[in-house]
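One record is given unchanged without comment:
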Amino acid sequence: METYRLAILDLYDGTANQGMRCISEILAGFSDRISSEVFDVRGKAEVPSLDFDIYISSGGPGSPHEGDGNWDSKYFDWIDQVWQWNKAGEGSKKHVFFICHSFQMACKHFGVCEINRRKSKSFGTFPVHMTSKGLSEPLFDGLPDPFYVADFREWQAVQPNAGRIAELGAEILALEKERPHVEFERAIMAMRFSPECFGTQFHPEADPGGMLKHFEDPERRKQIVDEHSELKYLQMIEHLNDGDKIGLTHDIILPLFLARAIRLLQEAEVDMLV
């Protein structure tokens, strides 16, 4: 069986996180078809070459507008190289998944919307709503509308640029929960930039078991309650214990992305032999 190469772009800059563990555990389910390598983008200014077939770019702390002029330039150059490779149409396409911080940076780089700071930090588990395009999105197959996500962010993707989105052939697939009691614009929560490049503002890799263990730590619980309220904490724990919420999102989106990428890579290989 053909094995495909996958690059994980780590944007956590050495910050303790659950995301990298979750990504690795999902990849373990594809170990017979995928080999992976990690690149420390922000800590060591590492970016992968075009020798990989699939890429997952992680979440991370801080502002998507800030870099040191080195790692961020290399990161944006990597995006451009992948985009141009796919546009040229020579050989198999490269498949990319952008998560949270990476999603914001991709949105900024492609110019599809504005990225600004939220009035208050989003922290916990929330419903997101599919757009009309999202209802037919292959990576959402099996999810209800709305579906629940793990969402931790200070920044947001808003004010979509319809002209630029049309130029790229991109599609907005999901928006944050409806908030009729406030006047703020609903942020973009998922976008397909191209047939091969997909991104989510939320963390589709988040697993309920790992999150429960993480947030049930007494010190972490106290911090969450102090910063966000007891009610917010209890709602998050309830959602993590409900298999039809975060667990379903975890089991569907990234695994479908990987399965779809493998299938398309296999089909491209067959086409080249014909």
Q: What stands out?
A: Strands lie at 4-10, 34-40, 54-57, 95-99, 114-130, 147-158, 171-176, 188-192, 197-200. Residues 42 and 72 are 8 Å apart (CA to CA). The two ends are 19 Å apart (CA to CA).
